[in-house]
Amino acid sequence: MGNERTPVLDVLGPSFPAFDRRTVAGTATLDLPDRPESVRSARDFTRSTLRFWRLSEQFDSVSLVVSELVTNALRYGDPAIELELVRGSRRLVCAVRDASATAPRRTEADPGAESGRGLQLVESFSDGWGWRHQSGTGGKVVWAVFRI
Q: Nearest CA to 18 among 120, 86, 119, 100?
């Protein structure tokens, strides 16, 4: 996926609410295989990227959201999964792409259920989230934004 892909901010378009493209200070991308250990790889990649960007204090919230978005892509998406982190002067975007056109759905989980709260967690730990179909690929990108 990596180099031939359109940068995530271009996929999200000019209506993406919380990010001024002129302030992009760094991007990092990781292709992930369709395996459960990809969630851990995504967290490790996020930790090293945030450390490099001197944003280690953001790791707990961002890694939880990364874990949920990658888990959802593994569970409901198609095998081609990509994680992209974009750092701006005041915002950090975490985006996960997969080849499935199926829209993410936030649901109310049964209180006793062990799963079904992923997007609720994303909503709680980020400063906003959303998704968008990728034109031409049939896939989608699900993103979360954090204030830094």
A: 86
